[in-house]
Amino acid sequence: MAENNPDVKLAFDTILAKRALYNELYKYYIGFHPLKYSTAKLREVFQKLDVFFAENWLSVVIDSVIDRIILKGFDISENANAQTAIEDLIKNHNILLAAEDVHESATITGEGFIIAMKVKDDEDNEELDIYFNDPRMCHMFYEQDQPNKKRFAAKLWQDGNRYTRLDLYYFDRFEHYISNKQTKMGELITNAKSFLPLADNPEEDNPFDAIPVFHWMSSRTTKKRDMGPSEVSMQDAINKLMNDMMVASDFSTYRQRVIISKADPGNMANDPGTNWWIPQPTDGNPTQVLELGGGGLEHYLTAIDKLATALAIISRTPKHYFFMQGGDPSGEALIALEAPLTKKVKKRIGRYTPEWQAFAQFLLELEGIEVERNQITPQFEPVETIQPKTQAEITKLDREGGVPLTTSKRRQGWSTTEMSQLKDDLTKEKQEQSGLAQDALDKLRTEDARNNTGTNTQVPPGNRS
């Protein structure tokens, strides 16, 4: 089967090829940056550098996006059974935590994966298994003539016995392969010809109506990532200047001293607090002691700030994420400062939404609930940074303009659960106010009745009929 199916080599080569790039991107995000030099000579001079200094500003760029893409749940209010089912699935399978992993990997590498399917447990009972998959292990292949249609998915991984495994997911079947030799823990085989069909389960029918692998992408065409070549090169330049500055600071602290004299004082320690005794020259000329280096470090700091500004502009990250600014901006000013980032994140959420709809629809189908995809609305935390005072003013203006409170809160990004709680609270508040009003009315009637009872109610004789 491995020899007859060309997709085995295609999947293996594709995943192996992107793994090196993705490993490097994750290292940049975490903070393990390789020190880059503009020439081979500089690399040779600095190769014995004992320590490495880095300012990991790429993590700021990535986190500024991740922190604003927070999935809260799904709104399927048109179908109460589906709404209850999806909320139970979210709670029971930690879907929101998996969503955080998906958004992080998609922001770093450009794609993220979740595999969801029913599997057999130890007692041979079926249970739903939903888990995030590292993009360095998976890949999704699409039809050439229909780029939005999935053709098959692949997962390359190492099992507990150190064999490399390859699983292919098609619409009608799943194929499973295993390497013919073991490798070191954490390492994979390097040749697709090493794969053989898995002896006890080479192929099985796909019991679902879809490929149970879900693929989120930041971009389908340009493959542009938040850590693209421009952003990475800015980070390399900042690290280079940082290390140059730290090397130069050694010469600023311990300046190189040069002695001009006919008398030879020998090698003298250039340490702080060390006194030098230099013999007087016999020709009568004075001994000269010169210092080399000792320039300031301000030009390094200025250059680093300029590169950080360029990184902020290229990545559309607000500058106050990089630099301290005097005073706190007002709500409106903050919204304006973060407008480019907000637009980028909203565009990204729009890109992720169709796959989240497909994912939720698939889970509901596994639960026996049929729902149209366009009835499912993924709900995210508000993207904009809005201060509480500004939020209250928005609600107040909406109410004064005749907008119902529930509509105003829905526009502000409240989830279905929060909206339901709000409606319950409003109903309860209305009932309590009605009860208080009734109590007050009953009290007035009681007082009125008491007053009428204590008053002479006889009718004057002249008014009798």
What's the quick description here?
This protein has 465 residues and is α+β, with helices and mostly antiparallel strands.
Description:
The protein has 465 residues and is an alpha+beta fold. It has a domain at 391-444. The protein has twelve helices and 13 strands. Strands 4, 5, 6, 7, 8 and 9 form a six-stranded antiparallel β-sheet that branches. Strands 3-2-10 form a three-stranded antiparallel β-sheet. Helix 3 crosses helix 5 (95-109) and helix 6 runs antiparallel to helix 7 (298-315). The longest helix is centred in the last third of the chain and has 38 residues, at 416-453. It is flat, with a radius of gyration of 35 Å. The model has no long low-confidence stretch (mean pLDDT 83).
Annotate the secondary structure layout.
Elements (H helix, E strand, L loop, with lengths): L6 H24 L9 H6 L12 H9 L4 E5 L4 H14 L1 H15 L1 E10 L5 E8 L4 E5 L7 E9 L4 E7 L3 E10 L12 E3 L5 E3 L7 E5 L11 H25 L2 E5 L27 E5 L5 H18 L15 H7 L1 H28 L10 E4 L7 H13 L4 H7 L4 H38 L12
Antiparallel strand pairs: 1-13, 2-3, 2-10, 4-5, 5-6, 6-7, 7-8, 7-9, 11-12
Helix pairs in contact: 3-5, 6-7
Number of DSSP E strands: 13
**What is the gyration radius calculated from CA atoms?**
35 Å
Largest sheet: 6 strands, antiparallel
- Provide the succession of SSEs: HHHEHHEEEEEEEEEHEEHHHEHHH
Number of helices: 12
Q: Give the DSSP E fraction (strand runs of 2 or more residues).
A: 15-25%
The average pLDDT is 83
Coarse shape: flat
**Low-pLDDT ranges:** none
Portion of residues in helices?
40-55%
Distance between the termini: 114 Å
Structure classification = alpha+beta
